Amino acid sequence: MPKLIPIQYAKILYHLTAECDDRNIDAAVDRFMRYLRENQALSKLDYILDAFVTYAKERQGIVSLRITSARELRPAFIEQMARRVSDKAETEVAVDPLLIGGLVIQHGNSIIDASVKHQLDKLRRAL
Amino acid sequence: MSYTDQVVQSIRKNLEQFTKQADVLEVGTVIEVGDGIARMTGLDNCQAQEMLSFENGALGLALNLEAETVSAIVLGEYKGISEGMTVKRTGKIMSVPVGDALIGRVVDALGQPIDGKGDLATQEFYPVERIAPGVMSREPVNKPLITGIKAIDALIPVGRGQRELIIGDRQTGKTAIAIDTILNQKDQDVICVYVAVGQKESKVARIVAKLQEEGAMGYTIVVSAGASEPAPMSYLAPYTGVTMAEFFADKGKDVLVIYDDLTKQAWAYREMSLLLRRPPGREAYPGDVFYLHSRLLERACNLNTKNGGGSITALPIIETQAGDISAYVPTNVISITDGQIFLETSLFYKGIRPALNVGLSVSRVGGAAQTKPMKKVAGSLKLALAQFRELEAFAQFSSDLDPDTKKQIDRGQRLTELLKQPQYSPMPAEEQVLSIYAASNGYFDAIDLKEVKAAEESLIKFARKAKSALLDKLRAGEWSDDIQNELKDTCEQYAK
């Protein structure tokens, strides 16, 4: 059987603790850590926790967006873009001058690419 | 308008027509890469056999769709791919370029040209995996595919739309038969596709050079997945070849596809499947190694007139180890094909080349794929050879035998001698008919065994000069008592 990848451990942790109240949560986490040790996956803990945060947010309807633009954008504009995708959106902003213009929004596993660099790439291939 | 102005104008036109649009791409992240396999998370809506695009420009083929991950084989350089890289879906199922522009070109398993003659001017792409034509779109094989090799055309005839396996040990002349068949299709209106799977690059280069020398590249496509290329290319190459053939067959043309060889494709598929962690079966081959070959060879067909009347003839080649035709992959392919041409090392070293074992070779289409004249003369040939094989052991004692037995042995020896043929010299069908007729009716019996080949050559030269009308009739497939008498006359005239 192939080894479990971090996202799979993260899902296990989420479903284990989601229904727990405060008393049982310590026991659940303890059980989970022992499960990791049994499967020799303790070294991946950092990745598992990252994946857990992403997955938990997803499950609670909080959408994680990563907006990369060519220049600094005004916070109000970023808010506006985020609202268009979902009400509960968390944004991470980055600036990449190589995009020349426009922006790229990464939302989970899909990318909305509205950058000038992408248009130029497409144009080059079409020609 | 000057050339530069024209170029500027067409670029401007393209720019105006270019619509600006934000694209939604679906991506994944590589979590593991090695040995030509990449494993990725994300790619939620990835389809099976979909082409994926890696950041380093390489393409991948998604083969394992697991719960959280997708495993893909990398078609190209996988060393530039690292963990954490983004992978994009292309939305396209594995396809290759098809079209008339491919004829005369040498391409790799992805359809990209490797002969240095520039880009392909093809417009269409066909998917590499396709369901074979159903029963109702086919008709029985009825036209011959003349290989130019006497032993095959007379005793193990191949028809257009048939699958005939060429099987034998290494260095027994399998590729030689394939190349001679291609060379003989010059005026037969047949397009040839030669798929080189896992071959040495030097061997492929020699073959292409020979085809070019003999003018065969004018109707041939060469698809090559060399030994230095990753295993997935060897896995794909035969499917690429048959896809390119299907383009022509759909238009009503006859196509010949040669897979050289399927053993190496099975090895490449085994390598890929083990790396994809699919469970190994007998001889470590994956469980679907039969399906690997059956779906490829089923695409060879003879389409009925309603579907265009085209055909794809397949000549797969399988290499056996130590003559063991009962190993796993050879038995699989023997059960799929409509007959086999069995080549033996012992015959090869005895000097019988092509080293055909006439006893074990068979064509399940048989006479339906022969012209009338060939059918008539081949019947007596088969019988004479069978009788000779029974008596072969006694050939050493020929002086002590009764005249009838001695006659049979002499006849058999001369027939065997006649069936030997040098490489790169395919013989047209009508000349084969004449030669076999002469031998079967005893016109070479009086000639010394060593002189038989020379006698055959001069008989044919004589007929070409003096009896070209008869040869034309035989080529057209006509047969009657008159023609038979004319043949008899030709031989008698020659004997004088």
UniProtKB/TrEMBL annotation, chain A:
Listed InterPro entries: ATPase_OSCP/dsu
Domain of life, source organism: Bacteria
Kindly name one Pfam family recorded for this protein. Answer: OSCP
Sorted alphabetically, which keywords does the UniProt record give? ATP synthesis, Hydrogen ion transport, Ion transport, Membrane, Transport
- What's a single GO MF annotation on this record? proton-transporting ATP synthase activity, rotational mechanism
GO terms for cellular component: membrane
* Compartment list: Membrane
Family matches, as PANTHER family: ATP SYNTHASE DELTA CHAIN (PTHR11910)
Q: What is this protein called?
A: ATP synthase F1 subunit delta
